[in-house]
Amino acid sequence: MNQRPAMDISGLPTFGHGPRSPTWWGTLGFMALEGTGFALAAGAYLYLATLWPNWRLSAPQPNHWPGTIVTLLLIVSLVPNHMLNRYAKECAIGPVRIGMVVMSLLGVAPLIVRWFEFPALNIYWDTNAYGSMLWVLLGLHTTHLITDVGDTIVLTVLMFTHHGYSGRRFGDVGDNVFYWDFVVLTWIPIYLLIYWIPRLG
Amino acid sequence: MSSADLTSERDLPPEREASAKGDVAPERDGPRDTGMDDASLHRWLTRTWRTPPGIIGALSSVDHKVIARRYLVTAFLFLCLGGLNAVAMRIQLSGPQRGLIGPDLYNQLFTMHGVTMMFLFAVPIVQATGIYLVPLMVGTRNIAFPRLNAFSYWVYVSGGLFAWVSFALSMAPDVGWFAYVPLSGPEYGPGKRADVWAQMITYTEVSSLAVAVATIVTVFKQRAPGMSLDKIPLYVWSLLVTSFVVVFAMPAVMITSTFLILDRLVGTHIFNPAEGGDALLFQHLFWFFGHPEVYIIFLPATGMVSAIIPAFARRPVFGHLGLVLSLIAVGFLSFGLWVHHMFATGLPKLGASFFTASSMMIAIPNGVQIFCWLATLWDGRPVIRTPLLFVFGFFFIFVIGGLTGVMLASVPLDLQVHDTYFVVAHFHYVLIGGAVFPLLGAAYFWFPKITGRMMSERLGRWHFWLALIGFNAAFFPMHIVGLWGMPRRVYTYPAELGWGNINLFISAGAVLFFLSFVLFAFNLVHSALKGAPAGDNPWDAGTLEWATSSPPPSYNFARIPVVTNVEPLWAEREALPVATGLRVDARELIISTVAEAHPDIREKSATPSIWPLLAAISVGGTFLYSIFTPWAIVWGAAPIAVTLIGWFWPKGDPEDEE
Amino acid sequence: MKRLASIAFATAIALFLQGCAGWQSALDPKGPAASELAWLIWFFTGLCAVVWVLVMAALAVPLMMRSRERLEPLVLDAGADNRKLRVVMTAVGLTAVILVGLTLLSFFANRTLAAIGSDAALTIRVTGHQWWWEVRYEDATPSRILTTANEIHIPAGEPVRLLLTSTDVIHSFWVPSLSGKLDLIPGRMNVLDIKADKPGVYRGQCAEFCGAQHANMGTFIIAEPRAKFDAWWNDQLQPAAAPSNDEAKTGEDLFLKRPCVMCHKIGGTPAGGTVAPDLTHVASRQTLAAGTLTMSRGNLAAWIADPQGVKPGSHMPVVDLSGDELNAIVAYLEGLK
Fold first, then answer.
1. Domain C23-235, CATH 3.40.50.20 — does that match?
2. Residues C109, B412: C-beta atoms closer than 8 Å
3. pLDDT (average), residues C86-100
4. Best exposed site among A115, B237, B327, B510 by fewest CB in 10 Å?
């Protein structure tokens, strides 16, 4: 088919941050589907909790302290996370490298505490459905935590190589920041569901 | 940069020095297409966008058309296998008390028929059609996240093989495609059969979800300049809505199958009523996915109808906006109906009535679609070719399926026909009428684009009549035998119930319907080899996929079109307006804004890579192993991590660095 | 082509008319619930048929048109499109009205159905097992509680309340000529009220896939006049008949010595198993193995000798018996009227 030039786009930039970038939208898509998974697992928990009048099925209270420490660590981590986002937008390689190291450490820390959170549930997954759901919810979030921390560490290493100093990498850092927000935000309702909502009744 | 020399391909301008503050990322540059003559442009783009030669090259391909072709062929093979399952079942049921197939094999057969048709044929083939057509229709050079797309295919094909190898080993699931607990649970589902179901489902749905995300991003961010929301073709809209439904529905089935494997493998009690779980929870979760699933299959088919009708009615679709809103409404409503699959479980009456109302309501947007298509056809005499014949077949069959769907929405009526052959008839009318007939029409419609050759019209007409008659002969009597009391999923029935003759008739119809697909396969192969050359736009249709050659080159469009109308080729008959200024030595394409499709970024699309295949192998191996031990997750983590790092680690191409 | 289609259609109609006499048919109602439902089915079918014919007519219109093909696709007649818009809106409005009407109709039908069993005097607990039905007649007097299997006797003309549950997987109780179906779910209890207008035998079968022998999980509702029903209940409450001859006596001894006794109960003997059907009055039933075989001496022998051949996958094991032993056991069971 015949063509006629109607637009010149040679001046466009080669990368963009946030909603300008397709990767941001892809990350959002995966958040949507993983968030649906979280919501359905939480819904399954609430469904069983309302089905059985004696919910918790005479299991002991979980010890909320490890969970509370994880929550605090995750909330604190949001501050450097957003500083990192600003450096990535400015394409400032030095601060981004430092920020990535900090975020790797702040990712590993809650994972260590998480190790002690499972026994603090005070019930096993195969004791009854209440125990099963607690382990499922905690396990689901832990999976996200592990994969995102792994991702952060790999990206940190990458930022220290000669591949690090490029627009595309700064975009990746921005998406990593975005995803970490998601990991933190999905934890809050699960934390409340595991430790506090059963205490209301 | 008027004419570029191929030898200087990697001779890039020196890296621009970063400013001391480091607030600007380095930018490299290369030859652009501005003012380049067609022959040089073609040479450059072919070199940049080609799939590398050799086996490793083929396995590394990230071209959406190559991946889509593989998807289409694989899905068609699974259709044949699922069809053979059906024929085997129909032979067993052709008379009362036949001893050809025992219950053990029969139960595997109908489970594999359902699993294959839903998960390995219907969803993959509508997504595959989208993978092929959406980038072409929105005027871009590749799908978003091309490596993820390649990964999806490998996951899909290995998941399908996993199911069918299990079947060959008599280890296939025998608990129905819905795998209700407790029948599929640890106590009543011994052996590995239900585990195969659970892991195969979780695994293949990964592929569907990945394709959905890639499709959404392609439509949102890669549309040709000027293709604002109101100029997006209806087919692309249908894929967009479908992809959203996938994103919110598929996690439900993955959660269901994961809960099931946990109950079976590590002893959780999520579905065990004796320990605080509940069997109906499974059904709620499953149908929260299962009902939208129907629309995941049906909506893209409506998009195909919306693409075929204007080409042959010779006018844009009547009620474009109404159709878009209907698609969106159906997408939303599809999440509010799942309970109508559970009326017979004895739910509270008031709640059930609510779901009657919501199930009835979804008929309204579907009605809007039907009426708009009919109104489109009323403008003068349509050109009757095979694709349009299949659209007529779609009307004939799907409307019956939709109307019996209204019957099933009524709680009291459903209690008589639920889980009988009436329902079997209903959903085959909906799925075959609503999705397979449009797909067949689409095959005749887009085959010329994919292969460069026309399909035989003569064989096409024979195929149509054989399929229409075979289908109705096979499935219409099922309504009746269902009302006579024949339940689903029975491997035999007593002679004294008088269902023998009608079942023999059904089986004959089923064989006829199967033969229509043999004829179709013959037409496909014959036309691919000997069909008349098609040219770029054999139907004189109006959307962008027809603007490029048939089959399209690896880079789809030599220059990205600028869109001025919902049917751009009808609006710009003299010359297509195009954008210039993209680099030709790297895989550049235009990223545009979501609503208005203003060009915004020149971004690079990923280069071919073997890592998606390796990643799929490590993920697949982990899933397979997890049927036997939960520790598979631990052992599988290392290879998965290695392959994913290999995938994302930059290799020094401009596509990786900028 | 058209002739082929009309032959197919005629054949379908012929088959349809021929099969209407089914004793397991939703279109052959024998009770108030099924009658209400059959009426509903016909009403919906009729209305849907009319809608379908109208849509097909609308589709046929352009094919009949004499007008030529359109040449310039983007040149549209605005006036014609406006008229079309009105037609489409009217059609959508009509669709909505019909759907609201049908929703109300099914809501009221549901209310009618719910009222049928409100004064049921007789309660029967039906428990689903892979692949048979345990039937227990509830009574305030414990000695009058009666357990049997697969065949449910009810008084004709009276509403009866069925309590449905399961001990293993999900089943669904469905006797189409009397009522719609309802699931039997482990850990839950569903209530289904049924009523047969006239005496008769109404067949039903499990409607939820429940494993290998889902196809052979039949049940029979046997509606009888009240007096006959009461007599039946009293008969069933009696302990098993004593063996009437030597062969049957040998059969009883064998039954009690062999694994049979592990699963089956025979009232008045030490056999007290509860995982399989109660055999106290097995010979009074019309069928064997949940409707798989009709009750006869030959079928009893076939079922005991080769249960996995008759009903592959069923939980009835093969018990190693000589020919004489088999005959003796059959003779004994045959006497359990």
1. no
2. yes
3. 95
4. A115
